[in-house]
Amino acid sequence: MASTIFDKIWQNHVIEGNEGEPQLLYVDLHLVHEVTSPQAFEGLRENNRKVRRPDKTFATVDHNVPTNPSPVDSIENIHDKISRLQVETLQNNCQEFGIKMAGIGAKDQGIVHVIGPQLGLSQPGKIIVCGDSHTSTHGGLGAIAFGIGTSEVEHVLATQTIWQMKPKNMGIKIQGKLAKGVSSKDIIMHLIAKYGANFGVGYALEFYGDTIEDLSQEARMTITNMAIEGGAKVGIIKPDEKTFEYVAGRKYAPEDMDAAIAYWSQLYTDSEEAFDKIITVDATQLEPYVSWGTNPAMAVSFSEKLPKITDSNIKQAYEYMGLEPGIKVENIPVEWIFIGSCTNGRLEDLKKAAEVIKGHKLAPNVTGWVVPGSRSVKTQAEKLGLDKIFIDAGCEWRDPGCSACLAMNPDKIPAGIHCASTTNRNFEGRQGANARTHLASPAMVAAAGINGHFVDIRKIS
Amino acid sequence: MDPITVHTGRTVALMNDNIDTDQIIPKQFLKNILKTGYANSLFFDWRYDDAGKPNKDFELNKPERQGASILITGSNFGCGSSREHAAWALKDWGFRVIIAGGYSDIFYMNCTKNGILPVVLPQNARDYLAKIASQEEITIDLPNQEVCCGKEKYHFDFDQTWKQKFINGDDDIDITMAYQQQIEEYEQKLPVFWQ
Ligand code: SF4
Fold first, then answer.
1. A63 Cβ inside 6 Å of ligand 1
2. Lowest model confidence (mean pLDDT) among A59-63, A64-68, A93-97, B92-96
3. What is the ipTM of this complex?
4. Which residue, A114, A433, B28, B87, shows the most beta carbons closer than 10 Å to its own?
5. Does residue B103 sit within a domain?
6. Ligand 1 in contact with A229 (CB < 6 A)?
7. Which family does it belong to (chain B) (predicted)?
């Protein structure tokens, strides 16, 4: 019987149980951050349990870390006492249980989904979990990667395994060349806008087709990152030469790369018959997307008008966003831009935004924040002089972290402000109380910053 | 985990679709390092106005809905962030059962770990349940997989393994510890480059 890449990796990890019932799976990599882990470690202590495989566990701090333009290189820089306690708690837990950690100021520190791939910890064929829904990101390297809750974090710490029900397989076939300026962010935003915020519930999504093959390794991760916004815990892309090359030479890459590549090369979907469902996308027709409402499905392509009010969800979204049906996204006044997050905070994303912004200034009423996804991304970007481009345009060049993607640190978008954002969620209050988020690609966000409203990136690139 | 077999209680309805965990519990309450103390933070931005006063129109604030233990809601409930704080906050407020059109996968798992029964019913059934009076009680019978409300009865599907777990109130880690030997054997078979 034909299998998908997802079926193959899953089957390789089953310790107990049959399909159709919860199965016990082995976890190859467990990433940990400060927000969803304290109660899990406490649970271990209460029950006198150890971490089964500290060597397969890696921790960092990202959600709570302030990203002031001046370096945030020690815990002393966290002025919010409760945030600081959470970060300290993780430090102490990692020490007590023998877990490697990239703490504040460390050169490997960054957003957990940026550093996993960057350090070579995330690899094809692994099962990767983390107490964070955007763990789906790592599926861009051909792994099964998904977010879990804190009780599950505790379970993985104690047993290095997890009980899961196998989801079904959905193939998303994407073919054709993208128009210049249209990016992988637009592919995933299109899918969610067209099929809804829950089209992927109960499925693992595999993205394939020549459009996907042409994408860089980093661009692929933007797609799998937002699989969760379509309701799918897992998004996966077949690993290929680009992937192997991406992993090779990284800090925690396998020593025996030949053996690893031989193993990884067996990870592919046998035939389309293996999918329970297939969606096709003609990439040549895709336009840039911008979200107008309060969930990622409330988004339109550049040439569309904002939809009519047909239910109370849409009505509530318009009220919150201070917008009206019938206008176009170019009519939305943009007062803030945010470039960063695990969706679009990698080096390539910063390069794309910098290309657009180079030689321009932010529009007079616009504030701009650029937050690299990790310290290493920051250093690399500075080597390329990207920091200067952003600063010259009038943006703040900040330290790595989640920052205003979720605003649980001091970085918040003020109430009522329309913020063009390279992040993944436009929920009410996500970027700050009453802040109004518009999701878009790095190039679209950069262009909105210099114009004070959204513009069609295809016309300027 | 507290077991659930048959639960009888009063209801409150929030019928929006796609209620995300950022709404169920906003991020400022995720800094806590405990599992309890979240009841007042539940649906914070909807429950309180900008000045911090309770919003009288919000269902959870209505005096006649206090003490409700069953939440009736829309589809794709609990989407977005994986924060288990959402389940803890619902539990802390007193909810033991949720009746939705569907759930995000991660939130569903978090319910199974915290003794909150996630029931799925179609729109017409939920529309009916959403209208029942505040003092009226309904019963969720897990062994028979039925929601009973006066003369009305609605069947719901439920995975048999999770069902046993709810009925017994089992601890997952204890269960898994019994597989120690299989886990060790599995680890020995890992490819050398992943040992
Ligand atoms: S960058 Fe945003 S979405 Fe990504 S892990 Fe941080 S808070 Fe979550």
1. yes
2. A64-68
3. 0.93
4. B87
5. yes
6. no
7. Belongs to the LeuD family. LeuD type 1 subfamily.
Question: Quick one: pLDDT at residue A461?
Answer: 58
A406 lines ligand 1 (CB under 6 A): yes
Residues A123-137 have a mean pLDDT of: 98
Sequential DSSP letters for B132-146:
S-TT-EEEEETTTTE
Nearest-CA neighbor of A125 among A239, A3, A205, A212?
A: A239
The 10s digit of each residue's pLDDT in A176-199 is 999 999 999 999 999 999 999 999
Judge whether B186 lies within some domain: no
Cross-chain residue pair A408–B173, CB shorter than 8 Å: no
Which parts of A119-183 fold into alpha helices (H)? 150-159
**Total tally of structural domains belonging to chain B:** 1
Interchain pair A39, B23: CB under 8 A = no
- Check residue B187 and give its pLDDT: 98
Query: pTM of the entire structure?
Result: 0.95
The whole-angstrom separation of Cα A326 and Cα A356 is 28
> Per-residue pLDDT tens for A386-399?
999 999 999 999 99
Does a structural domain hold residue B177? no
* Mutational test site, ligand 1, from A31, A36, A113, max ligand atoms within 8 Å of CB: A113
- State the CATH number of the domain containing residue B26: 3.20.19.10
B174: in domain: no
* Res. B189 pLDDT band, cuts 50 70 90: very high
pLDDT for residue B2: 82
Residues 6+ apart with CB under 8 A from A362: A337, A368, A393, A394, A395, A449, A450
| Type of residue found at A111 | I
Output the pLDDT for position A74.
80
pLDDT of residue A216: 98
Binding positions of A for [4Fe-4S] cluster: 342, 402, 405
Domain that holds residue B56: 6-169
Domains, chain A, in order of start with CATH, read: 5-164 (3.30.499.10), 168-239+262-285 (3.40.1060.10), 289-460 (3.30.499.10)
- Measured between beta carbons, the chain B residues lying within 8 angstroms of A151 are 84, 110, 113-114, 172
Instruction: Give a three-class secondary structure readout of A104-121.
Output: CCCCCCECHHHHHHHCCC
Question: Which stretch of A64-68, A218-222, B19-23 has the lowest confidence by average pLDDT?
Answer: A64-68
Asked whether the beta carbons of residue B191 and residue A259 sit closer than 8 angstroms, the reply is yes
